[in-house]
Amino acid sequence: MIPIEYYFVISTLMLFIGVYGFITRPNMLAMLMSLELILNAVNINFAVFNRYLYADQLEGMFFSLFSIGIAAAETAVAIAIIINVFRHEKKIETNEVKNLKY
Amino acid sequence: MQSYIIIISILILALPLLNFLVLGLADSRFSHKTAGTIGTFGLSIVAILSYITAFNYFFDFGKIDGVYQKFTQSVEWLRFSDTLHIDLGILLDPISVMMLVVISTVSLMVHIYSLGYMKGERGFQRYYAFLSLFTFSMLGLVVATNIFQMYIFWELVGVSSFLLIGFYYTKPSAVKAAKKAFIVTRFADLGFLIGILILSYFTNTFDFGALTDPNGSIIGNPASATFMGFSVLSWATLLIFMGGAGKSAMLPLHIWLPDAMEGPTPVSALIHAATMVVAGVYLVARLFPLYFFVTPDVLTVVAYIGAATSLFAAVVACTQTDIKRVLAFSTISQIAYMMVALGVSGFGGHDGLGYMSSMFHLFTHAFFKALLFLGAGAVIHAVHSNEMGDMGGLRKYLPITHITFLIACLSIAGIPPFSGFFSKDEILVAAFHHDKILFACQYLVAGLTAFYMFRLYFGIFWGKETHYHHTPHEGGVAMSAPLIFLGLLTLVTGFVPFHDLITTNGVSFAAHIDWAIAIPSILVGVAGIAVATVMYKKPSDIPNKVATAFNGFYVATKNKFYFDEIYLFVTKKIIFNCISTPIAWFDRHIVDGFMDFQAFWSNMLSSNIRYLQSGRVQQYVWVFTASAIVIAALVIF
Amino acid sequence: MEITANQIIFFILSAIIVVCSVFAVTERKILRAATHLLFVLLATAGLYFLLNYHFLAAVQISVYVGGILILFVFSIFLTSQVGSEMPAVKLSRKIAGLVVSISGAALCLFVLLTQNYPGAQEISEGEIDMTEIGQALMGVDEFQYLLPFEAISVLLLACIIAAILVARKK
Question: Which run of H or E residues covers position B89?
Answer without folding.
Answer: strand B85-92
